[in-house]
Structure formats: C-alpha cells, structure tokens
Structure prediction request, 69 residues.
Amino acid sequence: MAKIFRAGKPQPDKPWIGHEVNCRHCGCGFKLDASDKMELVSDWKEGDYYITNCPSCKNDITLANSLFS
Prediction:
C-alpha cells in the first residue's frame, strides 16, 4: 500500500465559482456561480478552456482553464 508523505487538497468540482468575468461583446460584467453552465473543451495545442454564455447578450465567452487552477 502506498504511504502518503504529503496530504493533498481536493480540488473543487466547480472551480469557477466566484470569479468575475467581463463580456468583450457587450461589456457586461458578472460573477460566476454554481448555477452557471460551463462546458470544458480539451485542446492539446492551445490549452483547455471553458465556454459559457453572457447573461446579457448570450454570446459565447471562453475562459482559459489555467485561470481556475
């Protein structure tokens, strides 16, 4: 059995909760919460990212996965 030499911290299921986002299309600023729909897109070349929609104009907003780690 493996011995733990340093305890890890469990990562949250929704790391984006509480982050503030600005829409580049309409200028809307909003804070992400647990009810926001976020789609994780895997991209080996440019890096993984999330897609969500602006609550004001409904355009797609992309957010780098590295922002939440």
In short: The chain has a mean pLDDT of 90. The beta strands are 20-22, 29-31, 39-41, 49-53, 60-64. The longest strand covers residues 49-53. Residues 20-68 form one domain.
